[in-house]
Amino acid sequence: MSEPLIEISALSKVFQRDSVEVRALDRVDMQVFPGDFVCLMGPSGSGKSTLLNIIAGVDRPSEGSVIVAGESLNEMSEDELAAWRNHHVGFVFQHFNLIPVLTAFENVELPLLLTSLSKKERREHVTTAMELVGLTDRMDHYPRQLSGGQEQRVAIARAIVTDPTCVLADEPTGDLDAHSAREVLEVLKGLNEQFKKTIMMVTHDPHAAAYASTRYQLEKGVFSKEGARQTV
Amino acid sequence: MKFLPFLLRNVFRNRRRTVLTVTSIAVSLFLVATLLTVLSELNEPPSTPDSALRLISRHKVSLANILPKAHQAKIRSVPGVKGVCGSMWYGGVYKDPSNFFAQFALTTDDMMEVYGNDVVMSEAEKQAFLKERTACVAGRKLAKRFNWKLGEKIFLKGTVFPFNAELTLRGIYEGPDESSLFFHWEYFNEGMSKEFGGTADFCGFYVIKAESAEAVPIVAEKIDALFRNTTAPTKTESEKSFILGFISMLGNVQLLITSICSGVIFAIVLVAANTIAMSIRERTREIGILKALGFRRSQILFLLLSEAIFITLGGSLIGSWGARLLYSSIDFSAVTAGFFQRFYVTPETLTLCALIGLGVGVVSAGVPAWQASRRPVVDALRRVV
Ligand SMILES: Nc1ncnc2c1ncn2[C@@H]1O[C@H](COP(=O)(O)OP(=O)(O)O)[C@@H](O)[C@H]1O
Ligand SMILES: [Mg+2]
């Protein structure tokens, strides 16, 4: 087997709420390999989002280490993390992913504004990403003119437009009806199968989980024994 | 620069709010520009080559104290003096008190010498005026205001003096001040002598023309020395400082105007700060998304500040340039009955207004933009709406 793309060891995250300590993650170990489609499941409040946020470099662990693509996130400054995210991570949230004042095209172009690509190159990249999610005919639409499923697909296009190392999705189908959810999941599956993108997805939905190649089950901040790394 | 379209979208995200904010700033800076122009016009009366050579000599005690006519000849004998006019502020009413304009009874012997190119008429008009005791001349703007033609009978009712002037318009002059009326001091003096049943023979002040600009301070000193120990001592100064002194009698205009401007600026900072803080707060989640995409804190700060400055600077430019355009198309001398000969919004005032716009943007957006740029991504993302 190849080198792990994401390597997490003894990762803990403690939130201080008033005088109460909430241990969202408790010494978690995890390895994700290039080309994996990982699904993270578990009841609400079990720490799924927290884990994903730490891997995405938008939150920091209390203890333990996170190494993604050979780089240790623990040591990076805020600005280094920002640049790193732009380069390595594509993020899809559950809702309100898109900037309402920008068109689908402009939303997808946003992360490219931070790169040194020319306007023409940006246009090409955006078009390619929109093709992959099947929305080339919706480029000039504003988010409010899109359906929930289309919005999520635009968000996926934005997540992959920089050709990141991994795509992280936090309940991307949580707000969608079954049909739209399937469309979104098919897009993710296609990315994983055809383009060998590494995908990590949080979901509640067993149907969604069925798309993944590996499944993790979180319970109160730790992986439950039977669920820890279950390869389909 | 590639962020500009994004920036503009954000500026016009809430169109009505932006328009209202820009309008309130524009109106405020229009007022500020107006007040600053009042100040700059008061401090910088229009000057011409002739006016730079003129001095005003008045009674040392106050402008209300009169000077003997005999002073004129004595002043004329002072070396460096080219001409002297005795002048009296008449202050009569033309038909209605609201028709206010400046009227001077003037000794005519040196008048053309003293005023030079500041009172320009045809030779025929000049001669017609000089040879007729009850003749008068009026500035072009004044004549236009009342639609006066040459030969017009102008009746002025005395208010300060118990003497009514019945004048005939014999000349219409051009010059930097075209809002005044001049008539013969001899006619005025005759009327006053009749009233007083003897001799009046006084002037309010003397307008003196010096031979050169260098001579101006020396002439002033010599004239004052001449009358120092008489019953009517004088205070002589350049026409410019006389006008500035006259204005300072209006009170501390400078302080008043600066305070009003500060108040206005403070008020717009409050308005802008409130609006901008609100527009940033509403976007907390979006800012979190931008950061998740890789925007650095400094980039967020830059975007939010530029957005605010775009609005405040835009408002201030509209207001101040609006003032400039408006005032340059209005005849201020007519509107203010000659108080302001011109009303010119100077480049300094425009620059100051732009800086105020910039400053208001930075001050009102500074804190919320800084906070938003620092807020951890996860906190921002948790905020729905
Ligand atoms: N910023 C925070 N402050 C305090 N507690 C938090 C914070 N973020 C998450 N938590 C707590 O950590 C636990 C895990 O949260 P989360 O990772 O969002 O769960 P999940 O995504 O599995 O529903 C929850 O108990 C939650 O209340
Ligand atoms: Mg969650």
Layout: helices, strands, pairs:
The complex is a heterodimer of chains A (about 230) and B (about 375).
Chain A: E1 6-17, E2 20-32, E3 37-41, H1 48-56, E4 63-68, E5 71-72, H2 78-88, E6 89-92, H3 104-113, H4 119-132, H5 148-160, E7 166-170, H6 178-195, E8 198-202, H7 206-209, E9 214-219, E10 222-223, E11 230-231
Parallel strand pairs in A: 3-8, 3-9, 6-7, 7-8
Antiparallel strand pairs in A: 1-2, 1-4, 4-5, 9-10, 9-11
Chain B: H1 4-11, H2 15-43, E1 54-59, E2 67-68, H3 71-76, E3 81-89, E4 93-94, E5 102-106, H4 111-115, H5 123-131, E6 135-139, H6 140-146, E7 153-157, E8 165-173, E9 180-184, H7 185-196, E10 202-203, E11 205-210, H8 215-227, E12 234-238, H9 239-248, H10 253-281, H11 284-292, H12 297-328, H13 332-335, H14 347-374, H15 377-382
Parallel strand pairs in B: 5-9, 6-8
Antiparallel strand pairs in B: 1-11, 1-12, 2-10, 3-5, 3-11, 4-7, 6-9, 7-8
Helix pairs in contact in B: 1-12, 2-10, 2-12, 2-14, 10-14, 12-14
Bound molecules: adenosine-5'-diphosphate and magnesium ion (MG).
Adenosine-5'-diphosphate binds next to strand 1, strand 2 and helix 1 of chain A.
How would you describe the overall organization of this protein?
The complex is a heterodimer of chains A (232) and B (385). With 232 residues, chain A is of the alpha/beta class. Chain A has a single domain, classed as P-loop containing nucleotide triphosphate hydrolases (Rossmann fold, 3-Layer(aba) Sandwich). Helix content of chain A is 34%, strand content 27%. Chain A contains 7 helices and 11 strands. In chain A, strands 3, 6, 7, 8, 9, 10 and 11 form a 7-stranded mixed β-sheet that branches. In chain A, strand 7 (166-170), helix 6 (178-195) and strand 8 (198-202) form a beta-alpha-beta unit. The radius of gyration of chain A is 17 Å and the shape is globular. Chain A starts with 5 loop residues before the first strand and ends with a strand. The relative contact order of chain A is 0.19. The mean pLDDT of chain A is 88. Chain B has 385 residues and is an alpha+beta fold. Chain B has 2 domains: 3-45 and 251-382, no CATH class; 66-231, no CATH class. In chain B, 54% of the residues lie in helices and 16% in strands. Chain B is built from 15 helices and 12 strands. Chain B has helices at 4-11, 15-43, 71-76, 111-115, 123-131, 140-146, 185-196, 215-227, 239-248, 253-281, 284-292, 297-328, 332-335, 347-374, 377-382; strands at residues 54-59, 67-68, 81-89, 93-94, 102-106, 135-139, 153-157, 165-173, 180-184, 202-203, 205-210, 234-238. In chain B, the strands form 2 sheets. In chain B, strands 4-7-8-6-9-5-3-11-1-12 form a 10-stranded mixed β-sheet. Chain B has a two-stranded antiparallel ribbon with strand order 2-10. In chain B, strand 7 and strand 8 form a beta hairpin. In chain B, helix 1 crosses helix 12 (297-328) and helix 2 runs antiparallel to helix 10 (253-281). Chain B is elongated, with a radius of gyration of 30 Å. In chain B, 38% of the residues are buried. The mean pLDDT of chain B is 88. Chains A and B meet through helix 2 and helix 3 of A and helix 1, helix 11, helix 12 and helix 15 of B. The structure holds adenosine-5'-diphosphate and magnesium ion. The site of magnesium ion has 3 residues of chain A, from helix 1.
